Amino acid sequence: MTAKKAVILLSGGLDSATVLAMAHADGYECYALGFDYGQRHEAELLAAQKVAKGLGAVEHKVVKLDLRSIGGSALTDDAIEVPEEETSGIPVTYVPARNTVFLSIALGWAEVLGAQDIFVGVNAVDYSGYPDCRPEYIEAYEKMANLATRAGVEGNKLAIRAPLMNMSKADIVTKGARLGVDYSLTVSCYQALPDGAACRRCDSCRLRAAGFAEAGLQDPTVYVP
């Protein structure tokens, strides 16, 4: 019997690593997809490579994009500082339309591979207020995907799967640990050093640390002294 294929959006962070492990455990033949989009924290690209190899991805593809050319985010514009205190509303670390762009390319690759499932690690519980991490967005995108593709039109329904959507960061860490995810390979920090050392102060670092603490598990993150 031929294994079912899935495209997994893999950033190199904690959430996407957990999603890859979950898809693999569910019997999918996993094709990991990452993006070199001009992000400030390039250490995540190396992390993604290690995670993909460690969790048995069949292939790990990195697509180069230039979102830095339009800017508009602290992650793609060095003139905008990464906030180190909690803020209200949509934070400056939101990258305009990032998930829409990423999912579009994942959708194209899924069609080429004959994969009917795309996995993404968005989360509506412990997240930073990004509009493209909500369940309404995922539902709308899946509907669009089946209207706009040959696969969908010909009856091979495509599914956008977001298994972390309603999980807390502690739940995610616990699930991943049970599946054997080596979180020491992952990088979550918005302003990580080239070697992956995390700042400890940004929103992503705080959420990650709180998740490990609440789960009662040791945080393997290497932090800047």
Find the structural class using helix and strand composition: alpha/beta
- Report the count of strand segments: 5
Using only C-alpha atoms, the radius of gyration works out to 17 Å
Question: Looking across the biggest beta sheet, what order are the strands in?
Answer: 3-2-1-4-5
CATH class: Alpha Beta
> What is the name of the CATH topology?
Rossmann fold
CATH architecture: 3-Layer(aba) Sandwich
Question: N-to-C SSE series?
Answer: EHEHEHEHHEHH
Low-confidence stretches: none
Helix content percent band? 25-40%
Number of domains: 1
Biggest beta sheet attributes: 5 strands, parallel
What's the N-to-C terminus distance?
51 Å
Oligomeric state of the chains in view: single chain
Would you spell out the secondary-structure blueprint of this structure?
Elements: E1 5-9, H1 14-25, E2 29-36, H2 43-54, E3 59-64, H3 98-113, E4 117-119, H4 135-148, H5 150-153, E5 159-161, H6 169-178, H7 203-215
Parallel strand pairs: 1-2, 1-4, 2-3, 4-5
Helix pairs in contact: 1-6, 6-7
What is the compact description of this entry?
The chain has 225 residues and is of the alpha/beta class. The termini are far apart.
List keywords for this structure.
225 residues; alpha/beta; Rossmann fold; 5-stranded parallel β-sheet; 7 helices; 36% helix; 11% strand; globular
Detailed description of the structure:
It catalyses: 7-carboxy-7-carbaguanine + NH4(+) + 2 ATP = 7-cyano-7-carbaguanine + 2 AMP + 2 diphosphate + 2 H(+). Pathway: Purine metabolism; 7-cyano-7-deazaguanine biosynthesis. There is one protein chain. With 225 residues, the protein is of the alpha/beta class. It has one domain (5-215): HUPs (Rossmann fold, 3-Layer(aba) Sandwich). It is 36% helix and 11% strand. The chain has seven helices and five strands. The chain has helices at residues 14-25, 43-54, 98-113, 135-148, 150-153, 169-178, 203-215, and strands at 5-9, 29-36, 59-64, 117-119, 159-161. Strands 3-2-1-4-5 form a five-stranded parallel β-sheet, sandwiched between helices. β2 (29-36), α2 (43-54) and β3 (59-64) form a beta-alpha-beta unit. α1 (14-25) packs across α6 (169-178) and α6 crosses α7. The longest helix is centred in the middle third of the chain and has 16 residues, at 98-113. It is globular. It starts with a strand and ends in a 10-residue tail after the last helix. The relative contact order is 0.18.
